[in-house]
């Protein structure tokens, strides 16, 4: 099975079954003392005003930073996705409430292939990922290609299921040139448990075709330039295993 940049791919199978100090009068020098006290009070008021003004921008900056940190990187399927992890050219995003990379249910992974700048190179990347999926015991559900047109390079799609001892994961991968760079956009869904094949079959029957269509029609894909601006981490949490769908 190979994905081609010119021809429509074949369907292998349907998708399965975060102090104020006190003060005193100074006796005969009461008037002078009042003047001095008033002067000190005035100075203190001015200092307090300056401190207040100085704190306002800082508080505003902190509020803006917190809002930015909680702002979704993008919306997919009416759900906001937050950036969780990046290293090199791979970037992971999950919905709010799924920040734990040890046990998430939905994830979008963006991979950028800087050396892929045309349809042929993108096709080669897609076929390499397909073989990688097979090498990780992935069951390929479906592959297809959208033929190139005079205005649009070809695109490719892979749907694959990975069975593990404590979860099943399905991955929908779209391969597309974005701003002249090859990218894969992978939506993954997990169901946890030891015997959850029937649950995954039911999820696929209800959501498989819809998810493929939504992914292939998604236009607000983050650009490679915006992905490069995301913060990097040296490594994943020690016990957070990467998804087998990562390419």
Topology:
Layout: H1 30-70, E1 74-76, E2 79-87, E3 90-95, E4 106-113, H2 119-135, E5 139-146, E6 155-163, E7 167-178, E8 181-192, H3 197-216, H4 224-228
Antiparallel strand pairs: 1-2, 2-3, 3-4, 4-8, 5-6, 6-7, 7-8
Structure description:
- The protein has helices at residues 30-70, 119-135, 197-216, 224-228, and strands at residues 74-76, 79-87, 90-95, 106-113, 139-146, 155-163, 167-178, 181-192.
- An 8-stranded antiparallel sheet has the order 1-2-3-4-8-7-6-5, sandwiched between helices.
- The radius of gyration is 28 Å and the shape is globular.
- With 247 residues, the chain is an alpha+beta fold.
- The model is unreliable at 7-42, 47-56 and 58-68 (pLDDT under 50).
- β5 and β6 (155-163) form a beta hairpin.
What keywords describe this structure?
single chain; 247 residues; alpha+beta; eight-stranded antiparallel sheet; 8 strands; 34% helix; 27% strand
Provide the residue-averaged pLDDT.
78
- The helix/strand series, from N terminus to C terminus, equals HEEEEHEEEEHH
Number of strands: 8
Oligomer classification: single chain
């Amino acid at each position: 099975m190979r994905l081609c940049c010119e021809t429509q791919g074949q369907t292998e199978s349907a998708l399965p079954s975060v102090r104020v100090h006190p003060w005193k009068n100074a006796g005969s020098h009461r008037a002078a003392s009042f003047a001095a006290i008033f002067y000190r009070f005035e100075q203190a008021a001015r200092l307090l005003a300056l401190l207040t003004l100085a704190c306002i921008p800082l508080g505003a900056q902190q509020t803006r930073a917190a809002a930015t940190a909680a702002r979704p990187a993008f919306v997919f399927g009416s759900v906001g996705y937050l950036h969780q992890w990046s290293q090199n050219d791979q970037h992971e995003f999950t919905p709010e409430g799924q920040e734990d990379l040890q046990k998430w249910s939905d994830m979008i992974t963006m991979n950028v292939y800087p050396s892929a700048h045309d349809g042929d190179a993108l096709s080669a990347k897609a076929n390499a990922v397909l073989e990688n999926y097979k090498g990780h015991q992935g069951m390929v559900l479906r592959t297809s290609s959208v033929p190139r047109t005079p205005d649009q390079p070809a695109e490719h799609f892979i749907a694959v299921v990975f069975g593990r001892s404590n979860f099943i994961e399905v991955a929908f991968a779209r391969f597309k040139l974005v701003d002249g760079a090859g990218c894969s956009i992978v939506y993954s869904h997990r169901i946890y448990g030891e015997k959850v094949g029937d649950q995954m079959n039911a999820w696929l029957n209800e959501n498989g075709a819809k998810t493929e269509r939504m992914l292939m029609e998604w236009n607000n894909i983050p650009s490679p330039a915006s992905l490069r601006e995301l913060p990097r981490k040296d490594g994943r949490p020690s016990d957070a295993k990467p998804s087998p769908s990562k390419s």
